[in-house]
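Box S1 | Example of a co-folding query
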Amino acid sequence: MLKFAKKLEGFEESTIREMTRKAIVNQAINLSQGMPDFEPPQELIEGIIEAIEKKEHQYSITYGNYNLREKISEKLRGYNGIEVDPEDEITVCCGASEGISSSILSILNPADEVIIFEPWYENYTPITHIAEGVPKYVQLKQEDFSIDEEKLKEEITKKTKAIIVNSPHNPSGKVFSSKEMKLIADICIDNDIIAITDEIYEYIIYDGEKHISLGSIPGMEERTITISGFSKTFSITGWRIGYVAAEKKLMKGIRKVHDYLTVCAPSILQEAAIKAFDLKDDYFSQLVKRYQKNRDYLSKSLNELGFKTIIPKGAYYMFSDISNFKTRDTDFADFLVKNKGVAVVPGSSFYHTENDENIVCNYVRFSFSQKIETLEEAIFRLKERLL
Ligand SMILES: Cc1ncc(COP(=O)(O)O)c(C=O)c1O
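Box S1 (continued) | Returned holo structure for pyridoxal-5'-phosphate
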């Protein structure tokens, strides 16, 4: 009889992606998975056509198209304050997701511990299990999702190998402050820990908040794996273009895993992604303006319906308290997708199961990465049918 590897027992398939499948089956508006329903910038579409004309149909070099890596290194210097050599300190991956997987797989030995802030983006735990590591959860403070210094320090042991830092944060929308980043940096340096940063929402940031890259903090250059990508900033989640930047020695291991996992990211799309660097500052400010408008509309509308929303400072999700509806998050999400035609993600998929039920089961996550008209239709459906 077929028996799967034991390490698969620690996790299930992604609930976020499952909700998208349920949205399709139920013809629901999909506010579960974070993907836009509008077109990416025209420059990128033209980039694909040009890449086809250039006949970029074969494997790229495993580490990624060199011109793209060069552009990424300039962006890392200018936007993130991180200095890396495109030759051997940047690797283009199949999305930030693969970057995270390759990074975790390259540094963990069995029983090594990984600090994961809770709630967390779904991918971190399964990959830690696949690498036979042990996730150590540090719950963010309930009131504002800030880091509880004591809780964090309590979880640091001799076995702590890595800490995953996602800012802007999915699902809460929290943007980690410079004080919090400094705290993490000090802990990493004092305890010889590697930081893996997930900065996929680095440009989607509101209310004058500033994005801080952990890898730019002095002393962190040698021990930070910086991960980002093109999915969210350029509304091309299906292209699967992301990247990892790290100091040469760390990168050597990451490249070994990346090479055998995927060989390379899609060549045509790597070539086309270079066009993203032609976009002017105005593109980024318009993107933020669009999402900020969505955020404000969704928050006001959901609160009127009885949800208690947490206003995100970054990313494009609204983690919303559903305690007024007196139902579990999973039942509520199921009810919404089947009966109301709106798909959301139950909050418990961002927590580990042994946690306090009151916290875990009282949230659902709405994405507002869609057109405002899509959000209006979702609110119409909830209004007409929910109350
Ligand atoms: C925090 C976070 N990291 C990574 C990803 C995936 O990024 P990519 O499409 O580049 O794999 C997502 C997607 O929702 C995310 O929310």
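Residues 34, 95-97, 121, 166, 170, 198, 200, 229, 231, 237, 242 surround pyridoxal-5'-phosphate (CB under 6 Å). The chain has a mean pLDDT of 95.
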